[in-house]
Amino acid sequence: MNNAPDNGAGRTVRVVIVDDHTIFRSGLKADLDARMDVVGEAGTVEQAIAVIVETRPEVVLLDVHLPGGLGGGGREVIAGSAALLGTTSFLALSVSDAAEDVVSVIRAGARGYVTKTISGKEISDAVMRVADGDAVFSPRLAGFVLDAFGTAPADIADDELDKLSARELEVMRLIARGYSYKEVAKELFISIKTVETHVSAVLRKLQLSSRHELTKWAAERRLL
Amino acid sequence: MTTAVQRPTLVRSSDRMIAGVCSGLADHLGWPVKLVRLGMILACFAGGAGVAFYAWLWTMVPTADENAKRNARRPASPIAPAVSLPPVPADSVGITTAPKTYDAGPVPAAFGGPSAAGGPGGSSATGGTTGPAGARPASGINASGDWWGGSALASWFSFRKIQYGKEILLGAALLLVAAILIARQFGVDVPLGTLIPAAAILGGAAIAWMQLDETRRAGLVDKTKADQAGGWVRLAAGLALVVAGVLVMVSGSGSWEQTWLALLASVAVLGGVALVLLPWGLKFWKDLESERAGRVRETERAEIAAHLHDSVLQTLALIQRRAGSEQDVVRLARAQERELRAWLFSDAAKEAGRLAERIKSIAAEVEDSHGHAVEVVTVGDTDMTDRHEALVQAAREAMLNAARHGGGTVSVYLESADGSAEIFIKDRGPGFNLDAVPDDRLGVKESIIGRMKRHGGTAVINSSSDGTEVRLALPSANADAGDQRNSEPARNSEPARNSEPMRNGEAKR
């Protein structure tokens, strides 16, 4: 559902795959197209941190649920590689599209997430997008954002981290409706880059906001 | 110090005069049977010590048959350790094996044998039951017992401490009794009036604690931290209180001062008893708790197993049989995933009967019947009314169309709050021209557009070569006509603006 960015052609992205299922890792490796170069794999939290520090990839495809470590899964991997967050981007993978599984890794620093049922083309596009520093939002994550931030646009008086602007709301709504970035851009008469900027802004708010609904949500799941 | 292990087990023999005690004892000790019988008869004249000893052995020592039955088990009787010793081959019975083994220890063959195995029992039986009259004949055995107790106790204890600790304690106590009786014989003044109640209380507490078997006691000691200083202090305090309380009670009589003391003593006794029983209460409570938790776990496990069997295992079997058809496999897998997810994560009681849940179940139904994935995203929720039922039916028709003609994943987005609702159904099919749809086709015009209009909502269909999107909007029931008109012109404008005027209107209300 996300289209490949136009500037993605002609370069390869170094990728590390972190997932505890060997079958899934090899399948994903085969699915990724020629723009990706898989430089490492890991199956546990400890392995993942070691491989990421050693290979310094541009993108880490990170399973949300991982054995090892303190039981924190993907969140713990991101926390353990925090020093590399500037150069390495994390794209969360999950069997479930449920916000519960994913928002914790997003808030830990992941740039987006995709479900494991996604096609090879879609996941390759998502990896390229993350490598370019943009965010990858699935319809359900957009739905969660709308749920958490509310569907009313921010007033000037509001803390800007705690509410979405009218334009960001429009973008989120369209993504929740299943629009690709390109379709969103066409629908709103803006460029894809602008759409990406809006999505990144929403991601930042999702990561940094202390909005009541978000903190309550996180506290209920003991993510704080 | 493995002398006892080498000796034949002490059992009542089938070769018998009365109960097979003497021949069994002779076998066990490696003595001639006649000698044992003669000794027993002689002992009978010594104040009846022999009779008591015989009766005691008769009661406590099993026959050879009984012994075979409970061979491998722990000693059932705490005061007959020899009974539980491993059986030895029949050909190694007798005197030939005995001297060799005695070399290992400082015990002379003649006395070491009987005392090591029968020491605690034998000496105590005579010393304890016969009293002053029987003290002298018993002293022979006593002497050997004391001697054994003095020299070999330490090493024996270290070997057998865990296994026979309480038997040894009992033996030592009985030896002490015998020693006191002998001391009285020699005219030493022993304060029996103080010793007897103290011994009774100590014995009672000891017996109470002995009822717990080894492992339970270990667990209890562990649980109550009785192995730490605090635990011992508590226990000692309890016992001291019990003893003091009873002694004061016994000695008290008459005046109110003493009554007051007695009252104090009773309280002390009760406190002491409570202190002693505390670990038990704790233990039983914990046992009960863990048993209950175990039962709950078991029930949960059974329920999960039953559910997985009915759902996941059946689906996996189906998938194996349909492995050739990719669409069937995908459909089965998606349906199973949906079902499992609902079972694992959703709170049925909370969400049942509301709009989001209805839309999800409709989407699942469409997905099952057409094999195309239907992704549902919901924001907010609202209660169902007749109007919302119409909205759901219109959405169902739109989903069916999308699955039938669209192909690929169908995206459904529901946004609702306070009775108003918007649903977007998007597919990625080749699209169609609404005006070109003939009037006799009821699907789109009647089931979707007409139905929404009748219930005060709107339906907009946007179709292009990239796909089709159906937008259904239902304002809340108390919305005034202006709001509905407001959303009408939005039909041909861009979709995001489409929903804004209405939302703003609601926000102002």
From TrEMBL, chain A:
Molecular function GO labels: DNA binding
InterPro entries per the UniProt record, alphabetical: CheY-like_superfamily, NreC/VraR/RcsB-like_REC, Sig_transdc_resp-reg_C-effctor, Sig_transdc_resp-reg_receiver, Tscrpt_reg_LuxR_C, WalR-like
Modified sites of kind 4-aspartylphosphate: D63
Gene3D superfamilies (alphabetical): 3.40.50.2300
The name this protein goes by in its record: Response regulator transcription factor
One Pfam family linked to the record: Response_reg
UniProt GO BP: phosphorelay signal transduction system; regulation of DNA-templated transcription
CDD domains attached to this UniProt entry: LuxR_C_like (cd06170), REC_NarL-like (cd17535)
Species the sequence originates in: Paenarthrobacter nitroguajacolicus (Arthrobacter nitroguajacolicus)
Domain of life: Bacteria
SMART domains assigned: HTH_LUXR, REC
Record key words, sorted: DNA-binding, Phosphoprotein
Domain Response regulatory per the UniProt entry, residue ranges: 14-131
Domain HTH luxR-type per the UniProt entry, residue ranges: 157-222
Automatic annotation (TrEMBL), chain B:
Region of interest (Disordered), residue spans: 113-138, 474-509
Top-rank lineage group of the source organism: Bacteria
Molecular function GO labels: kinase activity
Comp. bias intervals (Gly residues): 115-131
GO biological process, one term: phosphorelay signal transduction system
Gene3D superfamilies recorded: Histidine kinase-like ATPase, C-terminal domain
Record key words, sorted: Kinase, Membrane, Transferase, Transmembrane, Transmembrane helix, Two-component regulatory system
SUPFAM superfamilies according to UniProt: ATPase domain of HSP90 chaperone/DNA topoisomerase II/histidine kinase (SSF55874)
Stored InterPro entries: HATPase_C_sf, HATPase_dom, Phageshock_PspC_N, Sensor_HK_TwoCompSys
Occurrences of domain Phage shock protein PspC N-terminal (ranges): 9-63
Transmembrane segments: 38-61, 168-186, 192-212, 232-254, 260-282
Domain Histidine kinase/HSP90-like ATPase, first and last residues per copy: 389-476
PANTHER family xrefs: NITRATE/NITRITE SENSOR PROTEIN NARX-RELATED, OXYGEN SENSOR HISTIDINE KINASE NREB
Protein name: PspC domain-containing protein
Organism: Paenarthrobacter nitroguajacolicus (Arthrobacter nitroguajacolicus)
